[in-house]
């Protein structure tokens, strides 16, 4: 590992009055949650994301889409934070103004101890009414329910319509307040860590792009090239390996 890059990141974070940590599926990969594109293996290999993660797909085949999310939900339920999540939480404790913005629908940042995480794409553990019959969003707690696997998705207790996961699908708007807060932070911060995201999904990708356009230090933690690697300082390592090193170096400054 390039120690100079680690030290450079630690110093930039220390000197920045406000920091944004922007994460994607790659930060949870080492916890055993496959990245979105890698998740389409095995049973699900014959589908494309657009066939499973859109309102149109759900309308056309609600059972298929519900069952796919149930499979993802099980993976997330079994997952525990990895050293990257723990290092990010530690960095938030050490830094006076650090905001975590994630595209992930798991709660591994929170399990690791991060506070006030902005979830741009929702939360897979939550369920809501597809019709939002009681206003937006109509969350329904199904934790005590016995769900018949032959009759999915379960029905909304208010309107009898379909229930669906509380995640943002392709062709859907992001939660307005969350996106506004994240974009505002990307205009205000003085350094950004981008961790485990390919950068191909909008509007989320605007967050690092804003930071790059402002010319502040941006570090891209990703073992493979992302949309940001060329313009940011690229740390080409798995997040679980490099993030603890950066935080150790930060704590020594
Ligand atoms: P992707 O699956 O597009 O990209 C995951 C990124 O993580 C890739 O660039 C990998 O190289 C990188 N990666 C893999 N292992 C890693 C590791 N150990 N450490 C660091 N990086 C690693 O996931 P996202 O960019 O999060 O949207 O995708 C964005 C959105 O697209 C998701 O939130 C989801 C998906 O469609 C919605 O659900 C709306």
Q: Could you describe the 3D structure shown?
A:
The protein has 253 residues and is of the alpha/beta class. It folds into two domains: 1-32 and 81-121 and 174-253, 3-Layer(aba) Sandwich (Rossmann fold), CATH 3.40.50; 34-78 and 123-167, SIR2/SIRT2 'Small Domain' (2-Layer Sandwich). Helix content is 38%, strand content 15%. The protein has ten helices and nine strands. The chain has helices at residues 3-15, 26-29, 49-52, 55-60, 62-78, 83-94, 108-112, 176-188, 206-214, 239-252, and strands at residues 19-23, 98-102, 118-119, 122-129, 139-140, 163-167, 191-195, 218-221, 233-235. The strands form two sheets. The protein has a six-stranded parallel beta sheet with strand order 3-2-1-7-8-9, with helices on both faces. A three-stranded antiparallel beta sheet has the order 5-4-6, with helices on one face. Helix 7 links the parallel strand 2 (98-102) and strand 3 (118-119). The longest helix is centred in the first third of the chain and has 17 residues, at 62-78. The structure holds 2'-O-acetyl adenosine-5-diphosphoribose (OAD). 2'-O-acetyl adenosine-5-diphosphoribose binds at residues 24-26, 29-30, 35-37, 49, 53, 103, 121, 167-168, 196-198, 200-201, 221-224, 226, 238-239.
